[in-house]
Amino acid sequence: MSDPSGAPPTSGSRVRRSAPVPDDGAPLFTVSQAAAMLGVQQAFLRRLDSEQVVRPARSTGGQRRYSRHDLDHVAAILELLETGVTLAGAQRIIDLENEVADLRERLDDGHAAPEP
Q1: CATH topology of domain 31-108
Q2: Is 67:35 a contact under the CB 8 Å cutoff?
Q3: Is residue 44 within a helix (H) or strand (E), and if so which, with residue range?
Q4: Do the Cβ atoms of 77 and 90 come closer than 8 Å?
Q5: Do 71 and 40 touch, CB atoms closer than 8 A?
């Protein structure tokens, strides 16, 4: 019997993927699917695109296609917006957090930090 909560199977589950799944950067979701998954209006996602906060891929017909990475980015933006941060501020915070994470990874790998 399946889990009524819709939770994904655990690593010990008998359920296995029957087909290969593309990487998290694969542009799989339409704007309507992405909006539904994130609980936002499609217009909000279009605004993020027009302001170059999130740049989804485009289909051959020019329609936006969002990856799991894009969805994660939008979710992080939404989380910051809910605390009262502006859109520009939210993007800057995420950029700085990514920069810090990259620098920490370099230090963990034994590489010196880049010169300013």
Answers
A1: Multidrug-efflux Transporter Regulator; Chain: A; Domain 2 (1.10.1660)
A2: no
A3: helix 42-50
A4: yes
A5: no
Q: What percent of the chain has pLDDT over 70?
A: 76
Q: How far apart are CA 69 and CA 86, in angstroms?
A: 21
- Give the separation between CA 32 and CA 90, rounded to whole angstroms: 23
Which DSSP string do the residues of 49-111 spell out, in sequence order? HHTTSS--EE-TTS-EEB-HHHHHHHHHHHHHHTTT--HHHHHHHHHHHHHHHHHHHHHHTTP
Q: Are 67 and 56 in contact (CB under 8 A)?
A: yes
pLDDT number for residue 103: 93
Q: Which two tokens stand for residue 92?
A: 């800057």
